């Protein structure tokens, strides 16, 4: 029976998007991931939970990846990875060592038949059926801005900054500690829970008001593990996300990143980019973010001299709305990609990998020469 | 035996990873120790852990690895159970009908159907957090299982359109590329073609004969309405600054992620989630491709059809105690209990380095394996067909060195000793064993167990609080009842060895 099945039916490729905080996993040609799990693993030796990308040496990373993938295949997806095709959604500026180690784990340990790496920004746009857009990815450890025009990523205009969900968590922790909450209570899951259930991005008028407004109502938050109840002040609820919009001389807040990325592009594509901003990533699912970003951008265009000199004409920032939830938009792009024939033609096959034990990379000159190997 | 604490005695697996013996397997065909890392995991069968129903793999794939009947609570991920209620049913239409038909009759007798009947209705309820399907407005069902509606993905239609679009685009590109390649590099013919010289093309000739053009029909251009960017974005609700929020109505991140398609923020949008299946796993040796573990097919059975646990084949070493507190550079002794789990006597020797001839043997074995592999892959039939019919052998995993370093020197035992076979009936015998001449290091012996004393010296460089690790090689004879060759039927005896690492404890001051 298994032989018959494998011959008669093509097994759907597995699509993985291993993020810094959460991993999205599922099969190609499905409209949503099977599961979204934290990117962490339980060590078999000591039984403690550990972040996947928390490692000292490459061998350790390899072991952790093998353990993590093993859980994914045999606990969550319930398929054997052997002789299967894979789509991996990757950060285009991700570390080479992680990419190489992941490929080694898949090809050497799990014996997969091919792996297709797809860049997350580009593939996210495919869920809209457009080929031009300014993709803003607000993730856990960083926020990245990548302009894409006619299906080509404009690498020179790529911008990133370290504010992401991790920075927001740290800000919540800082503010709560200042109110006298015990540090032991504020674990990472608690901070995340506070963030997603109580916090929001406030409006531009309130953020820029000279005299403080009446803060939103405070919330009594019960920490279930410790039977403790802490007060979350209303000012915290509306102010933690301000770090994305903080004014500083570095000019590196989120609206500045967006505008600078647009300015780094050729002037012919700027208007198209302004009218097609696409915000993805789990960090962008907070209430009021898009509204705030839009009004900040419009304000900067009107008031900041630097931008006023460079942008001309009637400009209206326009935003795309993702078809699924923003936190798995990149995964969804991978699932679409895996459903097409690209999985046959563009994948890195096992034979090709074993020849050199190396993953071709756009930044590697060896792979980009015309007669390179 | 302490299951809860990590064992201080670890065996080096053939792949170089240390494991306690209860996590190791023993491949009888190789014959070597294997661990969970260096065996090939395979899925044996799918089953639901709640209703223990066996689900064939094709059905499991079709159902997205979910049980058809069991549901998980969206609130706390506990299993939901169906509760029955009785509802009074008023049968208006039937009564009306009966009234019409019953009118000509002289005395309409009260029929049982005219009585207020009751009907059983079911809803799902969580016994852990008391969430019910009524909380979110799912109507009760007449049948306990099978009729619960799935929450559908809102953008499924759009997704399907997108998928079709991209599939056509990619296919079109592929065709164009093929066409281009065909034109660019015409097939070199053995003989010069007439049409090449005369300038007649194939399509021209075909047209002259009156045939239709053979060229592929131009693929239809595909259209898709791309997404529209809008300037109006969702604004913050005005009451967010004034209305207090109720955390009980807002879902947590785990609840959102358990429903990945829509990830509701309001508790009222939670929906019972189909319970995901579990699997039974079989393990296969990567070297010789024999099964190490094969569970019984039925989900209710916890037995195995094939089980090659190391603890049933390899002598078990248990650390009993050290004779003196551990001091750097001071001679000490450790008491170890050896147990023979097999049905044959074992001869055991404790050495401080792996025996030379064994190493050579292992190399020779690998050499033999390689030759065999080459013979298989170089067979012309397989090459021509392009598929390897044999199961693909994945021995690519690099062997690693044992990382653990011993920091104590042991005094190897002066002679080997015999560990008697396991005999369950002997447990009940009166202890009438005649005292035999034992080597000096054996402290105590009963049945298949031996307690022995091993002298060692912790390294003088160790500081207070450092852990002392002993390492030795245990060489043992293993009687193999299965043989790879057909002509030999009687069991063969191998001299095997395993490296054992013992965490004896910390240096005391």
UniProtKB/TrEMBL annotation, chain A:
It comes from the Eukaryota. The gene is LOC117578289. This is Actin-related protein 10. Belongs to the actin family. PANTHER family: ACTIN. Pfam families: Actin.
TrEMBL record, chain B:
InterPro entries: DCTN4. GO terms for cellular component: cell cortex; centrosome; dynactin complex; myofibril; stress fiber. It is found in: Cytoplasm, Cell cortex; Cytoplasm, Cytoskeleton, Microtubule organizing center, Centrosome; Cytoplasm, Cytoskeleton, Stress fiber; Cytoplasm, Myofibril. Keywords: Acetylation, Coiled coil, Cytoplasm, Cytoskeleton, Isopeptide bond, Phosphoprotein, Ubl conjugation. The keyword Nucleotide-binding does not apply. Residues 93-115 are annotated as: Disordered. Its main location: cytoplasm. It comes from the Eukaryota. Signal peptide: none annotated. Belongs to the dynactin subunit 4 family. Subunit of dynactin, a multiprotein complex part of a tripartite complex with dynein and a adapter, such as BICDL1, BICD2 or HOOK3. The dynactin complex is built around ACTR1A/ACTB filament and consists of an actin-related filament composed of a shoulder domain, a pointed end and a barbed end. Its length is defined by its flexible shoulder domain. The soulder is composed of 2 DCTN1 subunits, 4 DCTN2 and 2 DCTN3. The 4 DCNT2 (via N-terminus) bind the ACTR1A filament and act as molecular rulers to determine the length. The pointed end is important for binding dynein-dynactin cargo adapters. This is Dynactin subunit 4.
């Amino acid at each position: 029976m298994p032989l018959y099945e494998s011959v008669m039916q093509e097994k759907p490729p597995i699509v993985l998007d291993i993020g810094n905080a959460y991993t999205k996993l599922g099969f190609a040609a499905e409209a949503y991931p099977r599961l979204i799990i934290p990117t962490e693993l339980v060590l078999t030796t000591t039984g403690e939970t550990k972040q996947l990308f928390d490692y000292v040496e490459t061998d350790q990373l390899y072991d952790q990846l093998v353990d993590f993938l093993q859980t994914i295949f045999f606990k969550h997806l319930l398929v054997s990875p052997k002789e299967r095709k894979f789509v991996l959604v990757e950060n285009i500026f991700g570390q080479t060592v992680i990419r190489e180690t992941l490929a080694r784990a898949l090809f050497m340990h799990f014996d997969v038949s091919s792996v297709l790496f797809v860049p997350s920004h580009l593939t996210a746009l495919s869920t809209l059926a457009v080929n031009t857009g300014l993709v803003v990815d607000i993730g856990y450890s960083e926020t990245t801005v990548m302009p894409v025009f006619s299906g080509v990523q404009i690498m020179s205009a790529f911008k990133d900054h370290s504010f992401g969900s991790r920075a927001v968590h740290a800000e919540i922790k800082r503010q709560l500690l200042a109110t006298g909450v015990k540090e032991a209570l504020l674990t990472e899951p608690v901070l995340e829970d506070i963030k997603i259930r109580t916090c929001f991005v406030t409006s531009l008028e309130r953020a820029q008001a000279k005299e403080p407004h009446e803060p939103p109502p405070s919330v009594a938050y019960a920490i279930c593990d410790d039977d403790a109840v802490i007060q979350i002040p209303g000012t915290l609820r509306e102010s933690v996300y301000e770090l994305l919009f903080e004014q500083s001389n570095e000019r590196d807040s989120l609206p500045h990143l967006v505008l600078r990325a647009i300015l780094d592009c050729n002037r012919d594509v700027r208007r198209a980019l302004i009218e097609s901003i696409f915000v993805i990533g789990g960090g962008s699912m907070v209430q009021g973010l898009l509204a705030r970003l839009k009004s900040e951008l419009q304000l900067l265009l009107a008031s900041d001299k630097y931008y006023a000199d460079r942008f001309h004409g009637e400009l209206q920032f326009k935003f795309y709305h993702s078809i699924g939830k923003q936190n798995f938009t990149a995964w969804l792009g991978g699932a679409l990609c895996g459903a097409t024939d690209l999985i046959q033609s563009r994948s890195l096959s096992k034979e090709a990998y074993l020849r050199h034990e190396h993953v071709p990379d756009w930044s590697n000159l060896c792979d980009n020469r015309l007669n390179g190997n | 035996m302490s299951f809860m604490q990590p064992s201080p005695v670890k065996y080096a697996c053939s792949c170089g990873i240390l494991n306690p013996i209860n996590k190791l397997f023993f491949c009888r065909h190789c014959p070597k120790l294997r661990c969970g890392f260096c065996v090939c995991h395979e899925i044996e069968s799918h089953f639901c852990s709640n209703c223990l129903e066996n689900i064939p793999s094709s059905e499991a794939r079709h159902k997205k690895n979910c049980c058809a009947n069991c549901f998980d609570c969206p609130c706390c991920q506990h299993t939901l159970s169906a509760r029955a209620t009785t509802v009074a049913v008023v049968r208006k239409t039937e009564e009306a009908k009966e009234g019409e038909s019953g009118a000509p009759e002289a005395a309409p007798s009260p029929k049982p159907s005219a009585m207020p009947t009751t009907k059983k209705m079911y809803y799902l309820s969580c016994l852990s957090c008391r969430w019910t399907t009524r909380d979110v407005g799912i109507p009760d069902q007449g049948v306990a299982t099978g009729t619960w509606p799935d929450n559908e993905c809102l953008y499924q239609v759009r997704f399907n359109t997108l998928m079709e679009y991209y599939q056509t685009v990619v296919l079109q590109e592929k065709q164009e590329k093929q066409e281009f390649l065909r034109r660019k590099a015409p097939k070199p013919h053995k003989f010069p073609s007439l049409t090449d010289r005369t300038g007649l093309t194939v399509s021209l000739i075909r047209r002259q004969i009156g045939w239709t053009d053979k060229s592929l029909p131009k693929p239809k251009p595909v259209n898709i309405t791309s997404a529209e960017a809008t300037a109006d974005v969702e604004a913050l609700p005005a009451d967010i600054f004034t209305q207090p929020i109720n955390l009980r109505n807002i879902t947590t991140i785990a609840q959102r992620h358990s429903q990945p398609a829509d990830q509701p923020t309001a508790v009222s949008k939670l929906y019972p989630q189909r319970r995901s299946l579990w699997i039974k796993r079989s393990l296969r040796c990567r070297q010789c491709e024999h099964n190490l573990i094969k569970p019984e097919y039925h989900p209710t059975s916890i037995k195995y059809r094939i089980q090659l646990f190391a603890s049933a084949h390899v002598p078990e070493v248990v650390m009993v105690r050290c004779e003196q507190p551990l001091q750097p550079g001071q001679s000490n002794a450790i008491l170890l209990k050896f147990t023979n789990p097999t049905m044959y006597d074992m001869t055991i020797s404790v050495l401080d380095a792996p025996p030379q001839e064994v190493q050579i043997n292992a190399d020779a074995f690998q050499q033999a394996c390689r030759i065999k592999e080459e013979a298989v892959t170089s067979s012309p039939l397989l090459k021509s067909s392009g598929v390897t019919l044999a199961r693909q052998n994945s021995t690519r995993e690099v062997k690693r060195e044992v990382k653990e370093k011993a920091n104590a020197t042991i005094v190897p035992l002066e002679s080997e000793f015999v560990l008697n076979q396991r005999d369950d009936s002997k447990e009940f015998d009166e202890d009438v064993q005649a005292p035999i001449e034992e080597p000096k290091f054996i402290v105590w012996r009963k049945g298949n167990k031996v307690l022995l004393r091993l002298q060692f010296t912790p390294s003088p460089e160790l500081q207070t609080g450092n852990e002392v690790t002993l390492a030795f090689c245990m060489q043992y004879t293993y009687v193999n009842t299965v043989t790879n060759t057909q002509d030999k039927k009687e069991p063969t005896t191998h001299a095997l060895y395993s490296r054992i690492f013992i965490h004896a404890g910390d240096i005391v001051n």
